[in-house]
Amino acid sequence: CILPDTAYFFNAKIRLSGSTPSLCETAGTDCPILKFGHMDSTNQVKWRELLVLKPGTAVTGGEWFEFKGVFNMHAYQLESSDVWSLLTIAGPEPGVDIAVDDISISLPSAGGYPDPNNVCGNLIVNGDGSGSGGFVFPHQSLLPSNALDLKSDGTNDYFHLNTRNKFHDTMKTDLITGCVAAGNTYTFSGKFRVHTTSSVVVKPYIRTLQPAQDKFEFQPITLCAPQTSADDFVTCGPVDFTFTDVHTTASSVSLVYIIDDATTDVDMDDLSFVFKSGAPSGYVLDSAVTPSCWGAGAEVVLPSENLHHYDAETTTIASVEAGGQIILANPIQRTSQDVNPDYTPELALLSRNIVFETGTTNTNGPSLVVLNTKNVVQKIQGVSLVGFGKQGVLGRNPINFKDNGDLTGSSVKKNSITLSNNRCVNVHGTDGLYIGENVAYDTIGHCYALELGTEINNSFDKNIGILTKKATTQATGETDNTPATFLITHPGNSWTGNVAAGSEFFGFWMDLTIDNALATMNAFSDNTVHSTFHMGIKSWPVGWRPSEPQVLVNTKVYRNRVRGLFIQFSSNVTFDGGLVADTRHAVDIRLSDFITFKNFNILGNTDEYMDIVNTRSGQPSHCGVATTGVRPHINTFTEGSDGTTLENVAFSGYARPECSSTAVAIDMDSHYWKNTFTAPTTFSNVAFDTTASIDAFSLCNIASKGVKDIAILDVDGSFDPAGGTGPGTIVSDDASMTEGKSCVVMTGSCAQYCQGNSA
Q1: How many helices (H) does the chain have, and how many strands (E)?
Q2: Is the distance from CB of 395 to CB of 367 less than 8 angstroms?
C-alpha cells in the first residue's frame, strides 16, 4: 500500500518510563526515532531514519506525549522482492520502557494539496495551518533541525519555529515548477510574530537550484517591516513578484524565509502567494501605430527600465492585432503605463524596408555624408543603417551633415541606426535641420550630436537613443569616450520630446564654450532620460549662463546610477514641471546663480521601482545607499546673485523604513566651497511624505566642513516643525545664528528653524 515518493502522516502517542528519568527527559537526547528497515533479496539489511522527535517537545516520565511528522519512502526501499520490511520506534537508552499507542499512518487530506481545478491559483497550500489535520504539510523545515511545528491558541492554528540557531533555520515550501512560468506575477502576503524584544526583519525569498548545479540562488520577494515581540502578528505585503526564466529553467523552486535573528522563535500565519497575472502576451501602443508601419517579423527593441544602461532587449513581432496591439515572438516583461504614466516603457521599431548594412561585426563602416549643399533641401527618411561609422575617425558617422550652412526645410526623419561605430546623427557646420522620430540602438560615442558649437536653429524632436556606449578610440579633440545620447554644444537649437534610454555616461550633456555659454535656447521640453550610468543631464565644464532667463519644461529623469541633474557654473535656468526619481543623487547644483525648480517632483525610492526590484531577480536599486534629493551649493558663481529656489516642489521616498536611514531629501553641496555661505536660497510650498526633519533636510555635511552660517528663507513655513505658515528661516545649529531669535531644533538636521525672515 505504501507508494514511493509520496508524503505520509505518522502519528503516535509515546510514554517513556523506568527506574530513573530518561535522557530524553533530562537532556533532550536519545529521544524516540521512527526508523524503517528492510532486508533485500541478497539478505542485506538496511535502515533509514524517517522521523525524529521535534525539538522542544515536553517529555515527562510516565506521561504520554505526541510523536508525529511527515515521511516518504523511495522506490528502492519498496521492492516486492524484499524478504521483510518494518517500522520501528527506537532511540531511548537501555533501561527505558517505551509504550506506544494510537498509531496511525495516513495520506494527507485534500487540504494539503492544490485545488485540482486551480492548481496554480495559490502557490502556498495550507498557508494558515488548518488544512492538513494538525500537520505542517506541505511545508518543511529548511534545515535538519526540525524546528517547524504547528501550534494553536485555541481558535487559530499557526506555524511555529523554535530551537533555531541559524538565520536560515526556517520554513521551506516547494513550489510547483509548472506554475512559475516566466512573466507570471503572484502576490505574496503573510503574518509573522517574533519572540524577542530586539528588532527583527523577516525576508521572504525564492530559492532556486539549476540543473547540474549544486549551489542555490536566492531572489528576494520583499523585506518585511521590522518588528519585536510587542507587535504581536505583523502583516507583510501584499507585494507582487514576477517569475523569470531563472525560475522556469530551475529543477527546484521553493519559498523560504530568512530571519535576521538567528535564535528567536517565529510564528507564521495566513501565508499566501496568489496568482495575479500572466506573462504579457502583447503591447498596446498608441493610435499612431498601424499595421502599415508595424508588421510581423519586424525587429523591435525595449530599453532598460532599471538602473543598468545595458538591459535593453530585442525581439521580433509575431503579429499586429486590432487596436494597436503588438504581439511579440518572445514576450519581454515591462511595466504597463497603467502603473504610472511617468515611467511608461518605450518600444521602438528597428526594422525598415530600405536597409543599408555592412554586417554586424564590421568596425570599419561607411558614412552617409551630406557635404556643402547650401540652401538645397535634403531628406533622409525611413531607412535603416546597420554597422555604419568608423571609431576614432572624425566625420565617419552613419549620418553626417557637414558644412552646409542654412538647410532650413531639410530633415532626417524616422530612420533606424543600429550597431554604429561612431555616433548616430552628427551635425557639423549646418543650421536649420530637422532631426526627428529616429531610433538609435547599440551605438558608440555621442549619438545625436552638434559638433563645432556654432550650429543653430536645428531641431531634435522625438528621437530615442538606446544603449549609448563609450568609444575606446576617439578622434583628436572629441569626447566620445564619455558619451552623451544628446550632445549639446550650442544652446541655440531645440530639443523636444526626446528620450535618452540607457547611456554609459550621460543622457544630455551641455558641453558649451565660453563664446556660446551666454546664448539662449530655442526650446527644451518634454525630454526624458532614464537608465544612464553616470548622469541624466549635465552642464559642465563651462556651464550655461544665458543672458535671459530660460525655462526647461517637463523634464523627466529617473533610474540613473549616480546623478540625475548636474548643474555647475550656470545661471538663469528654471526647471518647470517634471521629476527626478530613483537616482542616487537627484539634483546637484554647484556654484550656480538663479537656479529654480518649480512644480517639480523629486523622489528617492519610488513604489513603482521598488516593486520591480522586489518582484524580478537581479534588479539593482539605491535602497541600501545614502541617497539625496536636491543639494544646493553654499556659494554662487557670481557674488551677490541669488542661489537656488524651490517653489512648489514635492519630495518623497527618502524615508522608506526598509532603505538606508541616511537618505535625505535636501542636503548642501560642499564641493568648491568657501568657508562662508553666500548663496541666498529660498524655499516655498515644499512638501514631504515624512514629518521627520532628519529625512527632509540636513546641514550636517556642510557643518562638518566648518560652514555654520547657513540661512535659508522658508517663505510659507513648509519646514516649520510647529506647522506655522511662515515666513521662517532655516539656520545652522550654531549660537551665532540663533542668538536673540525664536528658534527650535530640527532634530537630526544640524539646523534650527527660526521664526521670521532672517536670511
Answers
A1: 6, 54
A2: yes
Determine the pLDDT at residue 289: 63
3-state secondary structure of 466: strand
How large is the average pLDDT for residues 179-191?
90
3-state secondary structure 114-179: CCCCCCCCECCCCCCCCCCCCCCCCCEECCCCCCEEEEECCCCEEEEECCCCCCCCCEEEECCHHH
Q: How many CB atoms lie within 10 A of CB 214?
A: 6
DSSP string, 538-555: EE-SS----SS-EEEEEE
Q: How far apart are CA 756 and CA 226, in angstroms?
A: 40
Q: Order of strands, edge to edge, in the sheet holding 348-349?
A: 283-284, 325-328, 313-321, 299-302, 348-349
Q: Quote the strand ranges of 195-265, DSSP E.
A: 202-209, 217-220, 234-242, 252-259
Neighbours of 251 (CB within 10 A): 11
Distance CA 670, CA 674 (A): 9
H/E element, 607: helix 607-615
| Beta strand segments in 358-480, E | 368-371, 379-381, 383-386, 399-406, 411-413, 416-418, 425-431, 434-436, 439-444, 448-450, 459-461, 464-469
- Alpha-carbon gap, residue 388 to 393, rounded angstroms: 12
pLDDT digits (tens, 9 = 90+) for 526-543: 999 999 999 999 999 999
**Phi-psi sector, 323: left (phi>0), alpha (psi -120 to 50), beta:** left
Which of 754, 623, 752, 636 minimizes the C-alpha distance to 698?
752
Do 716 and 750 form a contact (C-beta atoms < 8 A)? Answer: no
Give the dihedral of Cα atoms 571, 577, 583, 584; nearest 10 deg. 50
Query: Phi-psi category of 381—alpha, beta or left, where left has phi over 0 and alpha has psi -120 to 50?
Result: beta
CB 416, CB 352: distance < 8 Å: yes
Mean local confidence (pLDDT), 288-311? 87
- Tens digit of each residue's pLDDT (9 = 90 or more) over 590-626: 999 999 999 999 999 999 999 888 877 778 999 989 9
**Would strands 33-39 and 535-539 be described as parallel, antiparallel, or unpaired?**
unpaired
Residue 637: per-residue pLDDT: 92
**Distance (Å, whole) CA 728 – CA 723:** 11
Among 268, 316, 278, 270, which Cα is nearest to 295's? 316
| Model confidence, pTM | 0.70
* Residue 156, C-beta contacts closer than 8 angstroms, at least 6 positions apart: 128, 269
Contacts of 694 (CB under 8 A, 6+ apart): 664, 747, 748, 749
The helix/strand/coil state of 462 is: coil
**Distance in Å from the first CA to the final CA of the chain:** 87
722 φ/ψ sector (left φ>0, alpha ψ -120 to 50, else beta): alpha
* Residue 281, pLDDT score: 65
Q: Which of 13-22, 412-421, 447-456 is the least confident region?
A: 13-22
Going by C-alpha positions, the residue among 570, 577, 622, 623 that lies closest to residue 602 is 577
> How many whole angstroms separate alpha carbon 741 and alpha carbon 758?
9
Q: How far apart are CA 161 and CA 147, in angstroms?
A: 5
Residue indicated by cell numbers 530637422: 434
Name the amino acid, one letter, at 496: T
